Amino acid sequence: MPRPLLCLCLAACAAAAGAERPIVSRPGLRRPILVAKADAPPASPIVGKAELASSIINLVKAIVGAGVLSLPVGIAKFSGSRTAIVPACVIMLVVTTLCALLGATPRRVAVTGAGGQTGQHAFRKLLAKTGEFAPLGIVRSEESRAALLESGVPEEAVVVADVTDAAAIAAVMKGCDALIIGTSAKPAPIGTDEETGRPIFAFPNGQPEQVDWLGQKAQIDAAKACGPDTHVVICSSMGGTDPSNMLNALGRESLPDGSTKGGNILLWKRKAEKYLIDSGLPYTVVHPGGLLNEPGSKREIVIGVDDERDVGERSIPREDVAEVLVQALVIPAYRGRSFDIRSKLEGEGEVTTDFAALLEGLGDRNCDYSLGEIA
Hints:
By secondary structure, the protein is an alpha/beta fold. It has two domains: 3-19 and 42-103, no CATH class; 107-360, NAD(P)-binding Rossmann-like Domain (Rossmann fold, 3-Layer(aba) Sandwich). Helices cover 38% and strands 17% of the residues. It has eleven helices and 16 strands. The protein has helices at residues 3-16, 45-66, 71-78, 85-103, 118-128, 142-150, 166-172, 208-226, 265-278, 318-330, 355-360, and strands at residues 23-24, 33-34, 107-112, 133-139, 158-160, 178-181, 188-192, 199-202, 231-235, 253-254, 260-261, 283-288, 290-292, 301-304, 315-317, 337-343. It has an eight-stranded mixed β-sheet with strand order 5-4-3-6-9-12-16-14, sandwiched between helices. A two-stranded antiparallel sheet has the order 1-2. The protein has a two-stranded antiparallel sheet with strand order 7-8. Strand 3 (107-112), helix 5 (118-128) and strand 4 form a beta-alpha-beta unit. Helix 7 (166-172) packs across helix 8 (208-226) and helix 8 runs parallel beside helix 9 (265-278).
């Protein structure tokens, strides 16, 4: 039962406990005092039970008809027996519990990149929380959707939409309460540099400017259209404070005039993050280190800001990142926060299970967007 309803019932019961005692004044006293009624002659057991039942029925009728807050007044006006208080309170607890259960609906959470790796982990974690969330997985292709359906994901839980199509993403996100952005431009080797022998990378499914900036901007705008309290959680990347980070060189092409085009993935990600922070929406920006395809829930997670690395490794399992993304929707303190996460080696430290305590370890620090560059 939700705590506010329980507190309301208990407060009403406490107020009702004194409802029968009339208030009288005595000369010389500044405040009235409570005086119990004079002892009444004992009633027969049969009559007493009948009066008690009648009192309970009348009391419940009065409370249900006028609302929970009328409980003390209902007792004072309609009940001739103070023993009616306890069963009446029990009935009210049952009524309010049923109302809470019937009125509670799972939060609708859109998850983009649900056919990928980290995004899919987050999507499946939300699917497992059936009473709390009703996730909508958004994938880029029919092939990705078919793969999820074949794995047992309900048909109504997956849709196809291109995140770079603002109208399409806005249409599928209507009615959502929150959004996890799990999309990112994905580099792939296309050849080898003859001089260095190193692989050459490109972004065959969209450059970072289109996916990590314009695509994420479209998602943030769609979330804003869902309402001002739509919580947006971004899965980004560490390294944003260093413009020379090697990730920015992936897919970047030098032109004859000395300029460059393409690449700069961290700069475009940082632009999308700043756009979200300035949007006025509730937000959480998560910068994971190098992503590992290893089981989660086996390591201690290390939290920090601005690419600091005092302890732990530079990497973290995808499943652990997905868990943090989900916990950001569960724990209110994660709103309005931007931070980095990495992990210790398996077997070092204690496995992270308390995600509220994890964030508390950060204090009031957030990432500083004056550091580095923004595209």
